[in-house]
Design brief:
The longest helix is centred in the N-terminal third of the chain and has 15 residues. This protein has two domains: 224 residues, PmbA/TldD fold (2-Layer Sandwich); 205 residues, no CATH class. The protein is an alpha+beta fold. Helices cover 23% and strands 37% of the residues. The model has no long low-confidence stretch (mean pLDDT 96). The strands form three sheets. It has a six-stranded antiparallel beta sheet with strand order 3-2-1-4-5-6. Strands 10-9-8-11-17-16 form a six-stranded mixed beta sheet, with no helix packed on it. Strands 7-12-13-14-18 form a five-stranded mixed barrel. The termini are far apart.
Length: 443
């Protein structure tokens, strides 16, 4: 973090050159990616990069400019041209920095760093003592040749590690840290006719030390997932009970979150307009935003504006508890700011396991393991999503499902939430269990 002084210097220069306010984001990231196809390394990429984003408030106007050239002469040129360009824009009096009372505050940058490390999503140790190529090759090795139908085994392994420093002209100074290591293995198989089903498995950790224990069984899990795709086909169209795995649940959550956002509400392109404090889903659903959840991938002390984060109810027992208003749209709509977005979503789990619910279901259950494209209407909530799934009957898997969609309305779907399992998984967007919905249209 030797370059932090560049951000503070940029702030002072922007003020001296005519900006009334400014915010600067300086980030430096180290990245590595290894890809192996079967027993050969096909891709090896490594880079370190730094970038500076500058947000200028000039004469009632607002502009954003960025560069990865951090020499002071280059930045001075960017500030000068940025201020000149911003003055050409239409005035927007609602653009401003947040109320300083809402900022995250630490007694020092060192205290900020300690608090960021305490979130549990950053590794100080790093990955230098590990061989990423050997690790990547080891994932697929146990399954190569394990089944005559295997066409290809592909593994991607890598990491992303770095920091971001945020500063503005109101005196905010904040440091964020991140590190993430990942491995993903996919397997493609021969099937009847021209079908070539494939599937995969992935795992994450904050560093290679944490990831290593998961690598032993990763290839086998990917192969098993692909084998479940064999013989997949359509089932009769109709209304079914569906279950959605935690790893793909965000596909159904995103339309809800988008409809709560300030931009959608301001544009009147939201199916949740005038629904605050109303029951919008099944009463068994509770979703909280827990941005300082220990170990969560998105855990953070403050948001992109520098506003301190805190646990917040999004939906409680089916009731919509908050809209997502950042500084800008809260001023445009004359409402109090709430959240600029979500970082770590947590769904309150139920009491029964997924298998217990499948075993006790009196009807067939479609377990969705992935989504394939599709779309939803942000104004009405109508949707149609392609699915990859498995058909279960009395708790037993019957067949894979392909070439079908689920259709309906997002609000109706969430009102038909029938049960929440207790199998909470840590995923990139938060902590989700398997969810069961009844009476969903399959086409």
């Amino acid at each position: 973090m030797k370059r932090i002084d560049i951000a503070d210097w940029t702030i002072s220069q922007a003020l001296s050159m005519g900006a009334q306010a400014a915010r600067v984001e300086l980030s430096c990231i180290d990245m590595l990616n290894v890809q192996c196809d079967d027993a050969e390394v096909s891709t090896l990429q490594q880079n370190s990069s730094c970038a500076l984003v500058m947000r200028l408030y000039v004469d009632g106007r607002y502009g954003t400019y960025s560069t990865n050239r951090l020499e002071r002469s280059e930045i001075l040129s960017l500030i000068s041209s940025g201020i000149a360009c911003t003055r050409l824009l239409t005035p927007d009096p609602d653009r401003s920095l947040p109320d300083p009372k809402r900022y995250y505050q630490a007694s020092s940058l060192q205290q900020n760093r300690l608090e960021a490390i305490a979130l549990g999503n950053y590794s100080e140790e790093g990955n230098d003592r590990f061989d990423p190529v050997a690790m990547a090759l080891s994932v697929g090795a146990p399954i190569l040749g394990a089944d005559s139908r295997i066409i290809n085994v592909s593994t991607q392994l890598g990491y992303r590690r770095g920091w971001q420093y945020l500063a503005d002209t109101q005196g905010f100074r904040g440091l964020s840290l991140c590190s993430q290591s990942y491995a993903f293995t996919s397997v493609s198989l021969h099937d009847e006719g021209d079908s070539r089903p494939s599937d995969g498995w992935f795992d994450y950790a904050i560093d290679f030390k944490g990831l290593s224990p998961a690598l032993d069984g990763l290839g086998r899990k990917a192969l098993d997932a692909a084998l479940w795709r064999l013989g997949s086909g359509a089932v009769p169209a109709g209304r079914y009970t569906i279950a959605v795995e935690p790893t793909c649940l965000m596909k159904l959550l995103s339309p809800l979150i988008d409809a709560m956002s300030d931009y959608s509400l301001y544009q009147k392109r939201s199916f949740l307009i005038d629904r605050l404090d109303s029951v919008i889903t099944s009463p068994i659903l509770t979703i909280t935003e827990e941005p300082q959840h220990h170990g969560a991938y998105g855990a953070c002390l403050f948001d992109f504006e520098g506003v301190r984060t805190s646990a917040t109810d999004i939906i409680r027992n089916g009731r919509l508890c908050t809209y997502l208003f950042g500084t800008y749209y809260s001023r445009k709509m004359s409402v109090a700011p709430t959240l600029s977005g979500v970082n770590v979503l947590c769904i309150e789990p139920g009491t029964r396991s997924r298998q217990q619910i499948l075993d006790s279901s009196p009807s067939d259950v479609i377990l969705i393991t992935g989504f394939l494209g599709g779309n939803s209407n942000e104004a009405t909530g109508d949707f149609s999503f392609g699915i990859e799934a498995q058909l279960f009957r009395h708790g037993e898997r019957i067949q894979g499902i392909a070439g079908m969609n689920i259709t309906g309305n997002i609000l109706s779907l969430w009102q038909n939430l029938a049960e929440v399992a207790n199998d909470t998984e840590k995923v990139t967007d938060g902590y989700f269990p398997t969810l069961f919905f009844h009476d969903i249209e399959l086409a």
